[in-house]
UniProtKB/TrEMBL annotation:
GO terms for molecular function: heme binding; iron ion binding; oxygen binding; oxygen carrier activity; superoxide dismutase activity. It catalyses: Fe(III)-heme b-[protein] + nitric oxide + H2O = Fe(II)-heme b-[protein] + nitrite + 2 H(+); H2O2 + AH2 = A + 2 H2O; Fe(II)-heme b-[protein] + nitric oxide + O2 = Fe(III)-heme b-[protein] + nitrate; 2 superoxide + 2 H(+) = H2O2 + O2. Keywords: Heme, Iron, Metal-binding, Oxygen transport, Transport. It comes from the Eukaryota. The keyword Acyltransferase does not apply. Pfam families: Globin (PF00042). Belongs to the globin family. This is superoxide dismutase. InterPro entries: Globin, Globin-like_sf, Globin/Proto, Globin_lamprey/hagfish. It comes from Elachura formosa (spotted wren-babbler). Its EC number is 1.15.1.1. Residues 5-150 form the Globin domain. Involved in oxygen transport from the lung to the various peripheral tissues.
Length: 154
């Protein structure tokens, strides 16, 4: 489906919630990845240069982990800016999904893992309302990514 299921009010509150965590994009993006690699060690296998890192502290200091954390947050930020324009939103999600499906061959369940960890972090830092207002956005993102994966034959 090409239409976003968010009302104007939901878009506004989701943006407000996202802004809080995006202020520290690199640190929060890093925290999300470190938690993912720690709680789901199999996800590290996709990142050849993270494979040897076992301690969370080591990952936190890694330029590559920090760089990728920031990249993930930047991509989501681009999506959040276009929640009210499904064409522009899909213009960001589609190439990202295709690249992860075809070139990187990342299991799509990892998108849900990352989104859930972002929601956890939002709740820990800013409370349940913040998390609740961003939940629909993560569902949108994951739904669209899963659709792209299906189109790519996953």
């Amino acid at each position: 489906s090409c239409t976003m299921s968010l009302s104007e009010a939901e878009v506004q509150s989701a943006r407000g919630a996202w802004e809080k965590i995006y202020v520290d994009a690199e640190d929060n993006g890093t925290a999300v990845l470190v938690r993912m690699f720690t709680e789901h060690p199999d996800t590290k296998s996709y990142f050849t240069h993270f494979k040897g890192m076992d301690s969370a502290e080591e990952m936190k200091q890694s330029e590559q982990v920090r760089g990728h954390g920031k990249k993930v947050f930047s991509a989501i930020n681009d999506m959040v800016q276009h929640l009210d324009n499904s064409e522009a939103f899909l213009g960001i999600v589609t190439p990202l999904g295709k690249k992860h499906a075809t070139q990187l061959k990342i299991d799509p369940k990892n998108f849900r893992i990352i989104c859930d960890i972002i929601l956890q972090l939002m709740e820990e830092k800013f409370g349940g309302d913040c998390k609740a207002s961003f939940e629909k956005v993560t569902n949108e993102i994951c739904t669209h990514l899963n659709n792209i994966y299906k189109e790519e034959g996953w």
